[in-house]
Write a structure and sequence with these properties.
Layout lengths: L25 H25 L2 H17 L10 H20 L27 H13 L2 H12 L4 H8 L3 H17 L14
Length: 199
């Protein structure tokens, strides 16, 4: 059963305190600030990676919980958002591997209202095309899925993606190019659509 990540005002990271006990833990406060700032980005990234809205909250919860438990490993010189994406990436890749032997077809709800810095409906006119694009991303190899989601949906720079994935920038560009070519072969968007425009 998917657990729910409560709102910032009520959610408490389970650090051993009794329920209702006030905690002035500065580490918890910092992680909750990150949650408030990056929740939508992490949720959207996970949704595009696994296509399962019902369990997105599970993975968002686990991402911030891992950020809390690994807080001491965080280096201030590292971009926080990049670090959080890195944590989420490991979680979703593990999940994809678990589902590898099953034929996985995402079921998308009628209300595709995922907040995004990319307003996909500006580039793709019809809702059925949006659904086909999302379903097509789910069919890609995990590496292609990662770079397309980070680059085209989250609008990360090539440098940021390289840092998140632990790749060279050259590998990021090559994988992105191959992933977009794979999408085009599926005829998801006539003429390649938005995903081709910023190569």
């Amino acid at each position: 059963m998917c657990h729910t990540f409560h709102s910032v005002s009520t959610y408490r990271i389970d650090s051993g305190n009794e329920v209702g006990e006030i905690n002035d833990n500065p580490k918890e406060k910092q992680v909750m600030e990150w949650y408030e700032m990056y929740y939508k980005d992490i949720y959207r990234f996970i949704f595009y990676m696994i296509g399962d809205r019902q369990c997105c909250e599970d993975f968002v919860h686990d991402t911030f919980l891992r950020a809390y438990t690994s807080f001491e490993k965080f280096e201030n010189r590292t971009n926080v958002k990049t670090w959080l994406f890195s944590i989420a990436k490991h979680l979703v890749i593990d999940e994809i591997r678990k589902r590898k032997r099953r034929k996985f077809l995402s079921l998308f709800p009628n209300n595709l209202d995922i907040p995004s810095s990319l307003n996909i409906e500006q580039y793709i006119e019809h809702r059925d095309t949006i659904e086909r694009t999302l379903a097509a991303i789910q069919k890609l190899k995990p590496d292609y899925r990662l770079v397309i989601t980070l680059k085209k949906i989250e609008e990360c720079s090539t440098k940021e993606i390289a840092e998140i994935l632990g790749w060279s920038e050259s590998k990021v560009r090559k994988t992105l190019s191959r992933g977009l070519a794979a999408l085009k072969k599926m005829d998801v968007v006539e003429g390649g659509g938005y995903f081709e425009k910023s190569l």
